[in-house]
Amino acid sequence: MRVVFHIDELNKWPLLLANVTNFLATETEATVEVVAYAEAVTYYAGDEELPEALIGKVDFVACGNALRAWEIETGRLPEHVRVVPSGVVEIIHRQAEGYYYIRP
């Protein structure tokens, strides 16, 4: 099973991370991608750290357009965050590839 989680609101990160953690507890072989855009990309450059248990199991993605809009340099992102040109386009591509779409 392949799933893409979408987040665009900063205050939804705790809910999203709980959803991903719970999902992976049941679907241990799933492929999971989290795409952050809009204000949600600021989480990657903030003081909060992504749960260690999810690193390496989840493909964390940041929207390049949102990073520019929020004036966040890619060097401020954790090394396990992948930058794509457009978060919306990334989600569309994943859905076209058969990923299930989840927005907490």
Question: What would you say this structure looks like, in words?
Answer:
By secondary structure, the protein is of the alpha/beta class. The protein has a single domain (2-102), classed as Hypothetical Protein Ychn, Chain: A. 29% of the residues lie in helices and 24% in strands. It contains 3 helices and 5 strands; from the N terminus they run E-H-E-E-H-E-H-E. The protein has helices at residues 13-26, 64-69, 87-96; strands at residues 2-7, 31-36, 58-63, 81-84, 100-102. The chain has a 5-stranded parallel sheet, with helices on both faces. Helix 2 links the parallel strand 3 (58-63) and strand 4 (81-84). It is globular. The two termini are 18 Å apart. The relative contact order is 0.26. The model has no long low-confidence stretch (mean pLDDT 97).
Sheet/helix structural class: alpha/beta
Q: What is the residue-mean pLDDT, rounded to a whole number?
A: 97
**CATH architecture identity:** 3-Layer(aba) Sandwich
Assembly state:
single chain
Principal-axis shape: globular
What do we call the CATH homologous superfamily? Answer: DsrEFH-like
Observed structural traits:
104 residues, alpha/beta, Hypothetical Protein Ychn, Chain: A, 5-stranded parallel beta sheet, 3 helices, 5 strands, 29% helix, globular
